[in-house]
Amino acid sequence: MAVGTMISLALYFLVMLAIGLYAYRKSTSDVSGFMLGGRSLGPGVTALSAGASDMSGWMLMGVPGLMYAVGLSSIWISLGLILGAYLNYLIVAPRLRTYTELANDSITLPDFFENRFADSSHALRITSSVVIILFFTLYTSSGIVAGGKLFESSFGLSYEAGLYITAGVVVLYTLFGGFLAVSLTDFVQGCIMFIALVLVPIVTISSVGGTTAMVDNIAQINPEYLNVFSDIGIVAIISALAWGLGYFGQPHIIVRFMAIRSVADIPKARRIGMSWMIVALVGAMATGFAGIAYVAETGMPLEDSETIFILLGQVLFHPLIGGFLLAAILAAIMSTISSQLLVTSSSLTGDFYQAFLNKDASEKQLVLVGRLSVAAVALVAITLAYDRDSSILTLVSNAWAGFGAAFGPIVIMSLYWKQMNRHGALAGMITGALTVLVWIYAPITINGQSLSAVMYEIVPGFVMASIAIVVVSRLTAKTQPELEAVFEQVNSKHS
Question: How is domain 3-389 classified at the architecture level of CATH?
Fold first, then answer.
């Protein structure tokens, strides 16, 4: 590995660890500070933190890899994501920020569900925590897989060594710095990702003779690469656009809305976040698209389409810049892993340890348990990531669908429908999660295709969960007067 590349990566790691040290000294003395940063995030940090934690290794590896493999017909997923993210900022963020504070200052999503519906049985807390731990372990594993592939293809290290290096650095700054460290590192990582996703496609397109020459070359390679409807019907388009539904139920994203310092900052955060996201997604797709022409023109070997960004960064740039581009991939990977580790840790700490094992735990005990949970979840995710053939995009899509279906309908309806009760919420959560799991793993085929190949599992999961919420809520007891009063208080602030 060139000296310039090593210098860039070393600087990146030092900056991340320095931020972790700063956050450790700043905001980890109590559990609220460790898990939610004291609800003090500004709009810029909120926006880039939400974006960076959302756009993990699949942004710089999965999206370019899919575009490289199938061409413009992969654009539908990105369109769905942009629409979903915008609606998340618009309809979820303001009310959730207000409601979580009024609902006994809820600092986790399971905490909010229990307080929102006054669930003294703790069934909502337990079930939502199980869903978080199950799907976030898969999600975290996808990021560690991306790290393993990065170190293997770029540095000549073993895949397993890459897993431990990736997870090790993230665990260090997350374990000590908590939510503030995660959010601040996400901000820096979001800036790095933005620059990389503007720089790489521009240089790649220039190297193949410009946009016109690139399109002409791709048309000669395979005209279907230029067809947005190539081998994709209306059901497949709906499935791709449905990725946007996942935003409403992603704990690591919507927790940023809970942590922003005021509702008044949300419109500014939305403008920053959506601008960042659109440019980043267009850059990621353009990288994969231009990569088709570049690889064909140069004859460069590419065994794994998900490493096209890595290849272009290595061959087109000076080693110092190449190191920066590799740091961008690490930034994408680490920003999401850290967020997922922290949310899972908060669930294990508050929703299991404090709720059932030690209700009188001190703030220091809870922070210690939170840190131990970060390390434990990381070890489990590393174990799952040992499968070298794991597809980053497949792992992400499964976890994304699980959260979107289990939590998305509950989050939306809990903020807007006064008649929803805890029975409906529990029914919706279980129905959504089980529908996704059945859709993925059931040995059922349609015309020789698995259910998930026919329709993305988030669609039936989201629909069935929504139906379960409405039906069960209407068939069971009415909401309590005190809960209606809090709902009306939130509604009056946002009407």
Answer: Up-down Bundle (1.20)
